[in-house]
Design brief:
Structural class: alpha/beta
Strand order of the largest sheet: 3-4-5
Distance between the termini: 24 Å
Number of helices: 7
Strand content: 5-15%
Number of strands: 5
Length: about 200
C-alpha cells in the first residue's frame, strides 16, 4: 500500500502478480520476501513508498503479556514481528531495551505532561542503526550471504561492520569523502573495507 496515495485493488494485484512471476522465473521466490521480489514490487509501482503489512494470524488470542513478560529485553523480545524464520540465524549484540529518561525541564515546557527521552547512545555501536542491522545481518545469515555492504555517512557503516564481524561475514562500506574520520576508523576496527566517494548523499 503506497503511503502517498491509495492504489486501486486491481492495480495492486497486477503489480504483485508481475513481480511474483518474474521472481519465480528467476528462481528466487520462497516463503519470505526476497530482495529481488521487493525491488521489483517497488519498480513496478513506480518507485512509490510501500507500507508493509504483517501476517499476525499466528498471534490470535495472545495479548501484550506474551511480550511484556519475557525475560529477553533486546529487540528479539518482539521475535514474531521480525522477518527471521530460523532462530539459529539470529545475530545479536544485545541491542534494544534502551532506557527512557524523564526530562523534568521539558515537562514544565509542555504544561506538565510527562516527557521522556530514549537514550540510544548505549546501543552496541552507539547508534539506533543497531536495531535494524541486527535484523538485516540476521537475514543475510539466513540467506547464506558471505558479504554485506552499505553506503553511509558514518553510523550505519560502523553498525553494519560490527554486526557483520559478529556474524563472521565480510563487510564493505562506502562513505562520502567528508565523513568524520572517527566513523571510518570505527567501521575499519570491526574489519570493514572502507571506500570513500565524492558524491553527496544522506544515508
Amino acid at each position: 500500500i503506497p503511503l502517498d496515495q491509495q492504489w486501486d485493488p486491481a492495480e495492486h494485484d497486477r503489480v504483485l502478480a508481475l513481480a511474483l512471476a518474474e521472481a519465480d522465473k528467476a528462481g528466487v521466490t520462497g516463503k519470505a520476501v526476497t530482495p529481488f521480489l521487493l525491488l521489483r514490487i517497488v519498480e513496478l509501482s513506480g518507485g512509490r513508498s510501500l507500507e508493509v503489512n504483517l501476517d499476525l494470524s499466528g498471534l490470535e488470542g495472545k495479548g501484550p503479556e506474551l511480550f511484556l513478560h519475557r525475560a529477553e529485553r533486546s529487540i528479539w523480545r518482539w521475535r514474531e514481528f521480525l522477518p527471521i524464520e530460523k532462530d539459529g540465524a539470529i545475530v545479536t549484540l544485545g541491542e534494544g531495551g534502551t532506557p527512557l529518561l524523564p526530562v523534568e525541564r521539558l515537562r514544565r515546557d509542555v504544561g506538565g505532561a510527562e516527557v521522556y527521552l530514549k537514550n540510544d547512545t548505549v546501543l552496541p555501536t552507539g547508534s539506533l542503526k543497531d536495531r535494524s542491522n541486527a535484523v538485516a545481518i540476521s537475514r543475510a545469515i539466513e540467506e547464506g550471504r558471505a558479504v554485506v555492504a552499505v553506503a553511509s555517512t558514518g553510523n550505519a557503516a560502523a553498525s553494519v561492520a560490527a554486526y557483520a564481524a559478529r556474524a563472521g561475514l565480510e563487510s564493505v562500506v562506502f562513505v562520502p569523502e567528508a565523513t568524520a574520520p572517527e566513523k571510518v576508523v570505527q567501521a575499519a576496527a570491526y574489519g570493514a573495507r572502507a571506500y570513500a566517494y565524492n558524491r553527496k548523499g544522506d544515508y
